[in-house]
Amino acid sequence: MQELSNLFKPITVNILNKSDNYMEIVPCNDLNPYIRCFWGSPAPYRNKESTVSNLSRNLVIPDCCMDIIFDIDYCSNKLDNLFCSINDSPFYTAEVKKSSIVSTFGIRFNFWAVHLFSDKDLPKACNEFSEVDNYFKNLKKDIENIVIKYHSIKERVYHVEKLLLRKLYNKPFSNSNLLNGVYHILQAKGATTISNISQYTCVSSRQLERIFREYIGITPKKCCSLVRYQNIWKDLVYKRNLSFSDITYNYGYSDQAHMINDFKKYHGSTPSKSIEELNKGMSHFYNTKID
Questions:
Q1: Is the pLDDT of residue 96 over 70?
Q2: HEC letters along the chain
Q3: Is pTM, for the whole model, over 0.85?
Q4: CATH 1.10.10.60 occupies which residues in the chain?
Q5: Does the 176-280 domain belong in CATH 3.10.129.10?
């Protein structure tokens, strides 16, 4: 699975921004194939209620990952948790309602590895937001104890990594058909077809769909579409010399209008507008610092 994580490193909408209230930490080598990153606030901080609604709402775009998130409000002594499945449309986070001392800790899983940590089958639809113990009951309490006991994100990561490694012990990855199918999709940057995946894996399209739904919760076709979108977004962010015509050709679209409409469906705005917003600087939901 290390090859998969090397092929696919998704980014979010505000990759170029910086924030003192957010950082990402790359997992240890043993967890790198399974986890994109740990993320959250470096330490508890005082948030501020925004007087302008849009400033406290943060755009989240599809990144093909699934997240477990824990939020602590130290003023109310409240601990909330959330599991976010794969999303296939952009959305905004909730507005900040009041000023408080808060802390956030999240685990962003690579989509092909989430089932190794879950207690039951993943949701069979995108855009599900539910309590963590609906799918990770055995993990939830242990992670909550760590998040409560340690206030520093680095301390949290250290202890959570040990917990996740114990979880993986004696639970080897066994479905080679899923791995091969995902590898082909990532290698093609999503610009492939179900027929090509079936030919590469020597597995029927019907069986592939069953496998993907069982282990990931989405179809191979949806997986291709999301991976392709993420690669286009990365090209727009990092390869500013590419034209829209280049992107249209590189990713197998029939015409430029199709590419733009497809991108807008996942991003919420056109490629031109998205880069313009990125350059102006957007808020810091996540994906801002890497340590």
A1: no
A2: CHHHHHHCCCCCCCCCCCCCCCEEECCCCCCCCCEEEEEECCCCEEECCCCCHHHHCCEECCCCCEEEEEEEECCCCEEEEEEECCCCCCEECCCCCCCEEEEEEEEEECCCCHHHCCCCCCCCCCCCEECHHHCCHHHHHHHHHHHHHCCCHHHHHHHHHHHHHHHHCCCCCCCHHHHHHHHHHHHCCCCCCHHHHHHHHCCCHHHHHHHHHHHCCCCHHHHHHHHHHHHHHHHHHHCCCCCHHHHHHHCCCCCHHHHHHHHHHHHCCCHHHHHHHHHHCCCCCCCCCEC
A3: yes
A4: 176-280
A5: no
